[in-house]
Amino acid sequence: MGAGAPSPDAVAQGKKILVCVTGGIAAFKVVAVVRSLAETGADVRVVMTPSAHHFVGAQTFAALSGNPVATEMFGSGAAVPHVELARGADLVIVAPATANAVAKMALGFADDLFSAVLLTVRSPVLVAPAMHTEMWEHPATQRNVAALEERGITLIGPSEGALSSGDSGAGRMSEPEEIVRAGLRALGRAEDLAGVRALVTAGGTQEPIDPVRFVGNRSSGRMGFAIAQEAAARGARVTVVAGATSAEPPPGIEVVRVATADEMRAAVLERAPECDVTVKAAAVADFKPREAVDRKLKKASGPPEITLVPTPDILAELGSSPGLRKARGILVGFAAETEPDPGVLGRLAEGKRRSKGADVIVANDVGSSDSGFGAATNRAVIASPDGLTDVGLVTKIALASALMDVVAGLLRTRRSL
Predict the structure, then answer these.
(1) CA-based nearest residue to 18, from 76, 75, 65
(2) Residue 6 and which of 53, 122, 283, 321 are 20 to 30 A apart at CA?
(3) Which CATH number fits domain 197-416: 3.40.50.720, 3.40.50.300, 3.40.50.10300, 1.10.8.60?
(4) What is the pTM of this model?
(5) 156-171 pLDDT per residue, tens
(6) Residue 118 and residue 110: Cα distance in Å, rounded?
(7) Catalytic positions, please?
(8) Residue 361 near residue 279 (C-beta atoms within 8 A)
């Protein structure tokens, strides 16, 4: 536990946690999850699907949680059960999450109490899948899982091991203690950036050659937007300085639009001194034409001679000039590399962290089809004063979560000094 981090019981005390139990044989293991969460002092409410009753009785969960179990979509009078359950929830845990439950969450169904609650809730969601190996590995399930992760939902497991009917393989639900620990971490993360001001850059810059052509790159802005979304979910007040993007920014976050590296530099330097965290995730063009012409270059004139000059290195400027940053603030940079090997990525990340004067560098592989620009996933290594973290190949929102874990830890350490 990082310096100044609250204890698990303190994190959960008085928090409203919904545990949604769906119809899998692993439902019997959720009994231990509910008991452990109730023992932390959390207000635990259980939602059961009709098929879940085939495996565990509602009375068991009611006795352990101290609350009635919710099963019915429609209440009496003016009560709207799915709204009342979702409103004010601090965390939702879905365990076991069957293939059907995962599909309903991914597609946004709301045809029963469980799915209606999941479509209404605005708190962090933790999903513990449990199903046979063939179902877990099916392309439809994997697409649904990717959709959930892209929306910021956290999955824990499944692991490999004994399944029902004597089978063995991937699809076994994570153990109750692992689910509880993950839930408490999610509760802690939901507040660990409260009061923090964060500045995030996203997208690519476009350096004009003429009124219709430019030097640029294929950045979509998805990584920067994922970081902004994650920081905001943890309580930070976030401003995004965005260049050219094809992805949509997360709702409710201030976005400042720029086009060129010079414009991005001006926007960042204006705001960085007031921010506790600055994350340079934008893919700023390294070079720009020395001069941009004010009329379109004609093809008939032949290939133009274009002299390129360096653009400003915003990260290095922030790293080498303490006056441009908030005292004890955290500076994070990204390094786009074409090396998939985590050992190489780690060395590159640490080298750039030192040379740029940054606190944290994320080196990510942009040379593979499944990682980097335009892809839904990133392969990355995070370098910080605490060492290297090999994140592996994960969704952009999962990488953003891992990065904010590192940032939150550094902030706690610095504030305790």
Answers:
(1) 65
(2) 122
(3) 3.40.50.10300
(4) 0.73
(5) 989 888 877 777 788 9
(6) 8
(7) 217
(8) no
